Amino acid sequence: xxxxxxxxxxxxxxxVLPAAAVRxxxxxxxxxxxxxxxxxxxxxxxxxxxxxxxxxxxxxxxxMAALLGVRVASVMVQTGxxxxxxAPLLTLMPTAQTRADYLLAKQLAERTRSLAKAHxxxxxxxxxxxxxxxxxxxxxxxxxxxxxxxxxxxxxxxxAGQGAVVxxxxxxxxxxxxxxxxxxxxxxxxxxxxxxxxxxxxxxPFSVTAAxxxxxxxxxxxVVNADSGQVPVQIDFPAGKLLVGEMVRxxxxxxxxxxxxxxxxxxxxxxxxxxxVVQDVDNAAKKVAVQVLAAHGxxxxxxxxxxxxxxxxxxxGNHQLDDGTKLRxxxxxxxxxxxxxxx
Length: 343
What we know:
Elongation Factor Tu (Ef-tu), domain 3
């Protein structure tokens, strides 16, 4: 090889070797800028969300029916009105036939009393005659009869308008006790077993400006509703807080879960559906599979066999990290910005 060729080869080596060394040095110093947060042991509430409507409980609702054939002389209330105990609701007048039945029963009762005094009628005969008369009187057969509210009530429905002629057993009014309203809601069968009577509930009306109302579960059914596919839940709340028919969102607190509490941004899911977090172990990334036990607000409580209790979790920049990626810390929440030691 000539001296010129040797010189050229030496020059080429001088140019190539430094470049290769630079590339190797760059590879060794690759790192990712991330934000981390320390994990901490704690508990979060397990919540179940349901949607429902305010309705009277079955025990708080009453339908008032005509005891006799009568005509509605006047109606003093309307649907949706709230009335005090003793307030007049409607006035009934007996029909001609009812009035005739009353006069006949009155005459029969008087005659039976006379016969009983003369020992010509039994005590049972007298009791029946007086009972028949009493029923007619109670139903308004003697004359105008004003029906009054038996308790503080909400008028759910007025079935008979003024001037209507109704027969015995026909509906007149439907009432509900204001302190007997509940939210009837439905929950997913998969969550139903975690809900029990006494669980606290936050009820939020669909109205934008409405504040949440505290309630509690009074009944969780053990049967799935065939029509909705959900499990019925009944929720009690303080009187005067919600309106009949109002739609609400119910967040039921069904116990607590204990584990490591982390910000929700630490939770990732890979292509296989595995839930994991990335921990900072000696300033290097480590993926760890976890289970999310509960979520509340922007925090989750997690568990995992391979979690390092001392290693913080990566919050930002965690999606692109692989095991072993070197980390540079931009910020640490709840601890110093130094990486935790490995197990």
